[in-house]
Design a protein that fits this description.
Helix content: 25-40%
Distance between the termini: 52 Å
Pfam family, one: Response_reg
Structural class: alpha/beta
Strand content: 25-35%
CATH class of the largest domain: Mainly Beta
Organism: Pseudodesulfovibrio senegalensis
Domain HTH LytTR-type: 186-292
CATH topology of the largest domain: OB fold (Dihydrolipoamide Acetyltransferase, E2P)
Number of strands: 16
Protein name: Response regulator transcription factor
Number of domains: 2
Region (Disordered): 127-152
Length: 292
């Protein structure tokens, strides 16, 4: 059974060490990281879907723990918040932000067990981020044994969207432009391990609620990045938003195929293929862009 991924956010390393020791061996919890400031915590929250946070009420160098809780208030899968403080003065504000518990530190004998009971109750209600539903439309065709794990997503493109897409493709594939070295990477988490995925290895990104799935040629990573944030980050690296749910790496366009109805289909690489229909009246422009 999946455990609650837990982040410890406190300026005092001794307090973090004591929390880690108390949580060690709790069967339904897994500590996956520590942070000192709210900014560090937000960076980790962008790459790991945490289910529980232990956080100080007053954090250094920026937003407080209470303000961090306010920043998380709009998330659909909001983690449990356990505030850790040496004073009761912020308890009301913490519970106003939906705190699961408020711990005076160090806790009195037996008090931490009550916190674990509350977290256990929270876990029964906490919705782990599920796998996304079936693609919008899967091609109905016979597949070879090597292709049985492949999926095809067919996305409609309106006329004005085709214009924007072709313009973006032309800019991305302009051989006269100087390209930046492929050194940029995206931090993603898989089974508690942090991976740095080079941008050029990403084929496409798929939105799912407040999260997104990053697809490479052989893997799919669940991240807590929102698609809009990734669009802003990856657009300078030749990524294009072809649909409200999909962000495609234009360097991964691999094939042009003729389709029924005087359409042409432009495909991307990977086990999950994104097919983008291009009308016949625009195929000449597309071929010119691709140098065909």
């Amino acid at each position: 059974m999946p455990r609650l991924k837990t982040l410890l956010i406190h300026e005092d390393p001794k307090t973090r060490a004591e929390l880690r020791s108390l949580l060690d061996g709790v069967p339904f919890m897994q500590v996956l990281g520590e942070a000192v400031t709210a900014y560090e915590a937000m960076e980790l929250l962008e790459s790991i879907a945490y289910g529980a946070l232990f956080l100080g009420t007053d954090l250094p160098g920026g937003p407080s723990g209470i303000e961090l809780a306010q920043m998380l208030a709009g998330r659909k899968h909001k983690p449990a918040l356990v505030f850790v403080s040496d004073s009761e003065s912020r308890a009301y504000a913490a519970f106003e932000q939906g705190a699961t518990d408020y711990l005076l530190w160090p806790p009195a004998p037996g008090r931490f067990e009550r916190t674990l009971e509350r977290l256990g109750e929270f876990k029964t209600r906490f919705k782990e981020v599920p796998e996304p539903s079936e693609p919008l439309e899967t091609a109905n065709q016979e597949e070879s044994p090597d292709e049985q794990d492949e999926h095809t997503v067919q996305l409609p493109l309106e006329e004005h969207e085709q214009e924007s897409f072709l313009a973006a493709l032309r800019q991305a594939w302009d051989q006269t432009r100087t390209r930046t070295p492929e050194i940029d990477k995206l931090a993603v988490n898989q089974d508690g391990r942090m991976y740095l995925v080079p941008y050029h290895q990403i084929i496409f990104v798929e939105a799912y609620e407040d999260y997104s799935y990053v697809h490479t040629a052989g893997q799919k990573f669940l991240t807590s990045y929102r698609l809009k944030n990734l669009e802003d980050r990856l657009k300078p690296h030749r990524f294009f938003r072809v649909h409200r749910k999909y962000l495609v790496n234009l360097d991964m366009v691999t094939e042009i195929a003729s389709m029924p109805g005087s359409n042409f289909m432009l495909r991307t690489a990977g086990k999950t293929r994104i097919e983008l229909p291009i009308s016949r009246r625009r195929i000449a422009e597309l071929k010119q862009i691709l140098g065909l």
